[in-house]
């Protein structure tokens, strides 16, 4: 009985010591590893949003032959070179108005307000009947993200976070340069789709690596800094694009792809997640990481090694039907062949509790993506230079960084998600009403713009919080699948978001109403999801199911009420 009590007593401080001693200090090792994760954010953002500049459609019209003037006129016939047609009119003086006698396509090509090589639109003439092809490029990137989020996340749980991240980063660099030398539209479209797949191969493992690097009490610093680096990446895109505005779009593609040269540093310096190595029984690989942690942070290697081996021993599962002899043989193998449960998306679908939580998170991700990109398309645009507009719209997201950091220090992830979605829903509902009743009232129009920006900042903060919150809800070998399929479903919102502009033209109040209603729905559904603040990352599915049962919103409140009664 005493031995049992001793074992139980020792196990609690042991787990706490494991987490805080190995992961808890911002020593040189953690700083370097976290910095690599942060700088990996820039190439992912550049490849996703570079289309804002290289896919820009300037003012255009049918090209005018050198032998003609802009509007060729004589006493009876004159020609007008319109955007998509060359129109020939007969000046019918009897009827008092010109009469259209012929209309042809732009047989001499197009004339743009920018140089021919400035964007893919101008270079490949993606206007008029071919205009949808320009939007298709960005749609293919989003479709690639959907595929990549599902595939790369599963591979990262099976093969390791660093492996998938590094391979995706190196391939992103290769295909990014390939886009710059695309000879035609078909090649460009295929490469863009592949880059969308690889982009998620970088985002998902990188987010999980950053989260698994620290314990719960310091993990939120990593997420807040991640949002800061994302915003900074968008901010520096504008001046780079501005400086290269007089050159071909291919130079901008090359310049932003060069940031992926950082993957060469990543190959030598970044380590695999120690949590993943422990959960999968990779003793030799884990030992290398332990030696590096001990050396860089000036800790005891022997103490670290003993803690990790005890953690690996707790992770192992031994089938009940094994004999005592088999168990002894297995124990003597020193964790080289662990019997660990492997998870996949099928695991989520087979477990009702896990599936219910996942469905709520998938809807939340769709809401965030649809609202974020939809607001960009439907909100009032700033007048003036497009580079300055992009810079300012990115810069305001720093406010979301500050708010998220402050809130993460004192509130739980679930509470922050509720607050941000409630603010966004209320802001967009107010903006919709103000815009509907504003008319020619400039004060109400300006107030509508301000409330729209408040909504955008709130949904930005919520998006960042989800990258922290979602992986914390799943066990180690299901963590990338959990956040990966959440991101995959979110691409549905990204694909639908361009239609928000078309809907706004027909029904001006519809997009804001839809976004607001979805945000308010999330504030209610998310209450059924467990709070992860104060909880360490779960290792097994059994831990997760028990934790869900004890901490999921409604059940927890019912349990508390029964206890009080």
Write the layout of secondary structure elements.
Layout: H1 2-23, H2 28-39, H3 41-49, H4 51-54, E1 60-62, E2 71-73, E3 77-81, E4 86-92, E5 97-104, E6 110-112, H5 120-124, H6 131-159, H7 161-180, H8 185-212, H9 216-243, H10 249-257, H11 262-269, H12 274-279, H13 283-297, H14 301-315, H15 324-332, H16 345-350, H17 352-378, H18 386-395, H19 397-410, H20 413-438, H21 442-472, H22 479-496, H23 499-506, H24 510-525, H25 541-551, H26 553-564
Antiparallel strand pairs: 1-6, 2-3, 3-4, 4-5
- The CATH architecture term of the largest domain is Up-down Bundle
Number of domains: 3
The percent of residues in helical segments reads: over 70%
Uncertain residue segments: 1-18, 317-339, 557-565
Q: What is the spatial order of strands in the main beta sheet?
A: 2-3-4-5
In CATH terms, the superfamily of the largest domain is: MFS general substrate transporter like domains
What is the CATH topology assignment of the largest domain?
A: Growth Hormone, Chain: A
Q: Could you name the CATH class of the largest domain?
A: Mainly Alpha
Residue-averaged pLDDT: 77
Distance between the termini: 34 Å
């Amino acid at each position: 009985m005493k031995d049992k009590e001793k074992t139980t007593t020792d196990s609690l401080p042991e787990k706490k010591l494991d987490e805080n001693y190995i992961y808890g200090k911002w020593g040189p090792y953690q700083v370097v590893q976290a910095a690599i994760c942060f700088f990996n954010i820039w190439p992912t953002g550049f490849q996703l949003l570079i289309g804002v500049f290289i896919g820009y459609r300037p003012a255009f019209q049918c090209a005018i032959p050198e032998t003609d003037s802009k509007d060729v006129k004589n006493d009876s016939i004159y020609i007008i070179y319109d955007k998509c047609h060359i129109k020939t009119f007969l000046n019918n003086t009897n009827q008092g108005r010109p009469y259209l006698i012929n209309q042809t396509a732009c047989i001499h090509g197009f004339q743009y307000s920018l140089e021919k090589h400035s964007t893919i639109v101008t270079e490949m003439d993606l206007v008029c009947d071919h205009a949808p092809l320009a939007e298709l490029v960005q749609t293919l990137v989003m479709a690639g993200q959907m595929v990549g989020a599902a595939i790369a996340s599963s591979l990262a749980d099976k093969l390791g976070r660093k492996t998938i991240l590094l391979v995706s980063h190196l391939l992103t660099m290769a295909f990014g340069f390939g886009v710059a030398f695309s000879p035609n539209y078909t090649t460009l479209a295929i490469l863009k789709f592949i880059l969308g797949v690889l982009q998620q191969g970088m985002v998902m493992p990188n987010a999980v690596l950053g989260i698994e690097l620290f314990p719960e009490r310091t993990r939120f610093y990593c997420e807040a800094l991640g949002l800061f680096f994302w915003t900074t990446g968008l901010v520096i895109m504008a001046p780079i694009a501005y400086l290269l505005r007089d050159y071909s779009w291919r130079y901008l593609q090359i310049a932003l792809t060069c940031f992926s040269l950082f993957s060469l540093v990543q190959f030598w310096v970044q380590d695999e997640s120690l949590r993943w190595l422990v959960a999968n029984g990779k003793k030799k690989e884990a030992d290398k990481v332990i030696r590096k942690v001990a050396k860089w942070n000036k800790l005891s290697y022997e103490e670290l090694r003993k803690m990790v081996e005890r953690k690996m021993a707790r992770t192992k599962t031994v089938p009940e039907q094994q004999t005592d002899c088999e168990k002894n043989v297995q124990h003597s193998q020193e964790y080289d062949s662990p019997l660990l449960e492997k998870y996949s998306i099928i695991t989520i679908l087979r477990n009702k509790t896990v599936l219910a939580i996942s469905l709520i998170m998938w809807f939340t991700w769709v809401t965030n993506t649809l609202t974020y990109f939809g607001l960009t398309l439907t909100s009032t645009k700033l007048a003036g230079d497009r580079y300055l507009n992009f810079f300012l719209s990115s810069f305001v997201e720093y406010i979301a960084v500050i708010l998220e950091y402050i809130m993460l220090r004192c509130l739980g992830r679930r509470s922050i998600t509720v607050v941000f979605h409630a603010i966004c829903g209320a802001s967009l509902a107010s903006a919709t009403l103000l815009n509907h009743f504003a008319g020619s009232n400039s004060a109400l129009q300006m107030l509508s713009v301000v409330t729209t920006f408040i909504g955008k900042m709130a949904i930005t903060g919520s998006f960042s919080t989800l990258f922290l919150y979602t992986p914390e809800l799943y066990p180690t070998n299901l963590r990338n699948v959990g956040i990966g399929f959440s991101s995959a479903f979110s691409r549905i919102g990204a694909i639908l978001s361009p239609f928000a502009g078309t809907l706004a033209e027909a029904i001006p109040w519809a997009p804001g109403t839809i976004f607001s209603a979805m945000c308010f729905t999330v504030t209610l559904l998310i209450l059924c999801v467990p709070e992860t603040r104060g909880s360490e990352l779960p290792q097994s599915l059994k831990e997760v199911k028990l934790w869900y049962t004890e901490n999921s919103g409604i059940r927890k409140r019912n349990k508390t009420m029964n206890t009080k009664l």
